[in-house]
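Entry 12.
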Amino acid sequence: MPLIVMCGYPCSGKTQRAEELKGYFENSGPRKVHVVGDGGLDVERNTVYSDSQKEKNVRASLKAEVERKVNKDDIVILDSLNYIKGYRYELFCLIKHAQTPHCLVYCLTSHEQSSSWNTKRDAAGQYNQDIFDALVQRFEAPDSRNRWDSPLFTILKDDPLPFEEISDALLKRKAPPPNQSTQSQPLSSSNFLYELDKITQDALMAIFNAQKTSVPGDLISIPGATEKIELTRSINMAELRKFRRQFISYSKLHPTENTGQIANMFVQYLNKSLH
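Predicted 3D structure (tokens):
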């Protein structure tokens, strides 16, 4: 069932709003409501958010837990900062693959208000001020014009939650359709892995060589693909290899019967990753 993604500054009221949503949906019908959040991981927030690798691991753990919980019967609420645009996009891809709707609840507060609430917490629950300030500075506000941030419900500190509107967005709206790069298909081609390796390697070389004579904004063709790479910036080989590894890992879990579509799927994946 649907996913509700909470979003906002540290100490902006996300957990309180998540609990209000949990209570509303539990009282509205037989559906189970699962709240997934930092608190369930038993981590110390200042330790996590002062170390980029530890923070990345926490985000991965939360995403994995959401993926385990999302099903056709329950509602999942992700109660975390969710302040990175790219991470919210990854969650959007996840719900597309699961073919279930989602929405974003943005708890909008000022830096000063959230900082004040932070200082009123117990010492164990407080963010160090320098970490708090850094998280606020890095925060990427949601934008309803982005499909991964829509539908977007922006809530001020004294606003009541629009329960009915949120419910309608989740339960009366069709799930976003999966596209070729997110839809699972059964593996039937015995040479799939060979083709996957060869096609993606050829694509990398085509992109790398094309950049020698192109500028940001150009469209780049790769062998076997009808779609084109939208080159918005220069990209080095190390980054290209990273995207290739990610795509291959995903494709091994979700192989396609039609190896002729691998090139187009890789183009789709790269275009999403580069924007």
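Annotation: The two ends are 28 Å apart (CA to CA). The longest strand covers residues 3-8.
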